Amino acid sequence: MRIEYHRTLLADRVRNAAFHAALERAIVKGQTTVADIGAGTGFLGFLAARLGARRVDLYEAAGVASVARRLLRHNRLRNCRLFGMHSTEVMDPDRVDLVVCEALGNYPFEESIVETLNDARKRFLKPGGVIIPAGVRQLICPVVGGRFLAELTAWDRVGYGLDLGPAKAMTLNNIYVRTFAAADLLAGAKAAQVWDELTFQHHNKCTRSGEAAWTLDRPATIYGLALWWTADLAPPPADRIALSTGPLDPRTHWEQLYLPVLEPLAVEAGHTLTARVRSTTSYERGTNVAWVLIVRDAAGRQLSQQSLDLEKGFLP
Q1: CATH class of the domain comprising 3-102
Q2: Which of 131, 190, 262, 290 could pair with 309 in a Cys bridge, judged by C-beta atoms 3.0 to 4.6 Å apart?
């Protein structure tokens, strides 16, 4: 991974300010011990050190650990220790008062933060300790802007008498990083619902599943689903410090995700659209996502169903 990726992270002022505020609230100067897991260049761990943490342990397995080591020396942060390994590989780690981990992607769990924090909570965190982020909520909203699907169905416009339908189907069984405007989403994105929620203070399953449903008050054509997330960086009942990747929130380096449909769905007023999402993430196999869209009439009769799966989009 090139340094440019990390420049993008550190250029995200919204992200940086949110984590700084959460760390500042949680750290007691001269007392709090911290583990920065998946430290990258070490930025969050360095913030903790500058905010007065008694000791900061940084864990980073990738090559960027060498950059973190140089930056650590350059900034003369003597209360930091850097370990060039993944936290799950550490035998008998020193327990800390606070674990911070920003292994979040456009799909929040694609970097295996659930597995990582399951392990960190069990082996790194002292009883009663704090985890940042405290939890994540995943949101979903129907897409009513047709331009996203039009881009992906270019297979239909190749011409020359060829039917490229099987390749088109593979394209549509994929997830795309996109930036949505309010007008692209049902009710200007205000129709968004939470389909999955977890707190890192408990053991969590790496398979996530949930659904959301919308009964339309006017006809609409649905071209897919938009996903994004909100991370609560401070645990309740404290005043909320949150970081969100939604289209109505301050812009971050993260974007939303677009889950296409196989064919546009014309939903009449009074009909209900239900979306079901299931994801599985692991260190060994990465992330897979599957989604289903169902339309029912006012009497509850099913009118149509489309099922898509990321695994169908991979080349054989």
Answers
A1: alpha beta
A2: 290
CA 30, CA 52: separation in Å to the nearest integer? 6
What residues does CATH 2.70.160.11 cover in the chain? 136-313
* Bridge partners, 99 (sequence order): 35, 131
* Domain at 136-313, CATH class: mainly beta
Q: 256 by DSSP, 3-state: which?
A: strand
Calculate the alpha carbon distances from 31 to 16, 51, 54 in Å: 23, 11, 5
Per-residue pLDDT for the chain (316 aa), expressed as one digit of tens each?
688 999 999 999 999 999 999 999 999 999 999 999 999 999 999 999 999 999 999 999 999 999 999 999 999 999 999 999 999 999 999 999 999 999 999 999 999 999 999 999 999 999 999 999 999 999 999 999 999 999 999 999 999 999 999 999 999 999 999 999 999 999 999 999 999 999 999 999 999 999 999 999 999 999 999 999 999 998 766 688 999 999 999 999 999 999 999 999 999 999 999 999 999 998 888 999 999 999 999 999 999 999 999 999 987 7
With a CB cutoff of 8 Å and minimum separation 6, the contacts of 199 are 134, 135, 235
Torsion of CA 14, 147, 218, 276, to 10 degrees: -70
Q: How far apart are CA 33 and CA 250, in angstroms?
A: 31
Looking at the chain, the domain(s) classified CATH 3.40.50.150 span 3-102
Which amino acid, 172?
L
Strand ranges (DSSP E) for 170-206? 176-178, 193-199
* pTM over 0.90, yes/no: yes
Q: Peptide bond before 237: cis, by omega within 30 degrees of 0? A: yes
